[in-house]
Write a structure and sequence with these properties.
alpha/beta; pyridoxal phosphate binding; transferase; pyruvate; binds 4'-deoxy-4'-aminopyridoxal-5'-phosphate; 7-stranded mixed beta sheet; PyrdxlP-dep_Trfase_small; PyrdxlP-dep_Trfase; Aspartate Aminotransferase, domain 1; 2 domains; 4-stranded mixed beta sheet
């Protein structure tokens, strides 16, 4: 079977978040995968330095997951989640509730990170309306935040490029991101800057807390190039939200299930939000799935609101919410993470990765290096006013060398598979050093 697309195929497929013209002039085709590696159409093995799209931390083509999927397909291929149930969804909910921090013991299933962020913010608004505070509708995100590509996500998300073709969708506010030039090349969390959370107080002064539903942030922002919060910043956000009766949502689509060297970013930073958005790593990327983990009190408010027995408490959900095959994949993924102790492994290996990635400091064009757990971001100097050209060239040169890393805006992004060995980190960093030097 050919590994190259036909011209008709190239013409027909409008690729998402891609330069279609660039790709179609020079298709880079992935033909297979195993463990921490992709195979390409030239028969090469390529180290997957972003775990897919922050999805496949346990490595690719894990038979533990694919056989759970096959088994599920042999039993129940699909079941409606509205008014009917199947046991895998309940089993997974119990498992997720037990893993979640604090009293986030209720689980709402979705199919993606975008749907998780939409769902959490919709629940926030509905909660306040339900609780007799219908004016608490305003949503607050952060500059450079990424919460998906839906109308909600591009509204409370704060990446300008993702909004420029659409303009105004939902009304939302954005507080600043936490990055400051003086913290460049900090390893892990910057010590100073917790008070940047106090900007939220200005928004509260402006709108009044009686009009604000929720604040949504990534514990560390991924798509913006891995921006790590200063020590105490998330705690301060939590304090302000609690004090002013505003819900705090952590979008853990990237940080959930091990990326931060802990089960959740909430655990890594020791802060319990009111809701957590998950996706990606929840099924090791094998089947689309997402979930929102919700504080007990929020769920109970809906259940206690009354109404007739047959009334729907939350008119929200998706055809594929809690899909049995996705639930089977998620259960197998959680088993695998636990059996192979992959989350503690990330925590254990993170200092090695930190030293390695920071050894690139001093190379031309590198303006900053940031890291946490098995995630890292590098800021690259713009060339001729174009932020993307150098990161693009470096990523393409690395692809030629057999390494996949992501470029986005003026950054390069790394999200190592949790199974990465130290010699693979060494090879990746050596290759990055060379590609960066070649990037003039
Ligand atoms: N939130 C965050 C923090 C993400 O990183 C992403 C995806 N990169 C999303 C939401 C959106 O997820 P999806 O693409 O599955 O809709």
């Amino acid at each position: 079977m050919s590994t190259q697309p036909t011209q008709a195929g190239l013409d027909a497929y409008w690729m998402p978040y891609s330069s279609n013209r660039e790709f179609k002039a020079n298709p880079r085709m992935i033909t297979g995968a195993e463990g921490a590696y992709y195979m390409d159409d030239r028969g090469r093995r390529i180290f997957d330095g972003l775990s897919g799209l922050w999805t496949c931390g346990a490595g690719h083509n894990r038979t533990e997951i694919s056989s759970a999927i096959s088994k599920q397909l042999g039993e129940l291929d699909y079941a409606p989640a509205f008014q009917f149930g199947h046991n895998k969804a309940f089993e997974l909910a119990e498992r997720l509730a037990a893993m979640a921090p604090g009293d986030l013991n209720r689980v709402f299933y979705v199919n993606s990170g975008s749907e998780a962020a939409d769902t959490a913010t919709k629940i926030a608004r509905a909660y306040w309306r339900q609780s007799g505070q219908p004016n608490k509708t305003r949503l607050i995100g952060r500059a450079k935040g990424y919460h998906g590509a839906s109308w909600g996500g591009i509204s409370f998300g704060g990446i300008g490029n993702n909004r420029k073709l659409w303009g105004h969708a939902l009304d939302a506010d954005h507080i600043h991101h936490t990055w400051r030039p003086e913290q460049a090349f900090t390893q892990g969390s910057p010590e100073d800057g917790a008070e940047r959370a106090d900007e939220l107080l200005d928004r509260i002064a402006l709108h009044d807390a009686s009009n604000i539903a929720a604040v949504i942030v990534e514990p560390f922002s991924g798509s913006a190039g891995v921006i790590i919060p200063p020590v105490g910043y998330l705690k301060r956000l939590r304090e302000i939200c609690t004090e002013h009766n505003i819900l705090l949502i952590f979008d853990e689509v990237i940080t959930g299930f091990g990326r931060a060297g802990a089960t959740f970013g909430a655990d890594a930073f020791d802060v319990v939000p009111d809701m957590i958005c998950c996706a990606k790593q929840i099924t090791n990327g094998v089947i689309p799935m997402g979930a929102v983990l919700i504080k007990d009190e929020i769920y109970r408010a809906f259940m206690e609101a009354g109404g007739a027995e047959h009334n729907i408490e939350l008119p929200h959900g998706y055809t594929y919410s809690g899909h049995p095959v996705a639930c089977a994949a998620a259960l197998a993924t959680l088993d695998l993470l636990e059996r192979d102790q992959l989350i503690p492994r990330v925590a254990e290996m993170a200092p090695y990765f930190e030293q390695a990635i920071h050894s690139l400091k001093g190379l031309a064009h590198i303006l900053d290096i940031r890291n946490y757990g098995f995630a890292a971001g590098l800021s690259i100097a713009h060339k001729d006013g174009d932020p993307a050209i150098r990161p693009y060239k470096i990523a393409m040169d690395l692809w030629e060398k057999g390494f996949y890393v992501r470029y986005g805006g003026d950054t390069l992004q790394l999200g190592l598979p949790f199974i990465t060995e130290s010699h693979e980190i060494d090879s990746l960093i050596n290759a990055m050093g060379e590609s960066i030097k070649n990037a003039e």
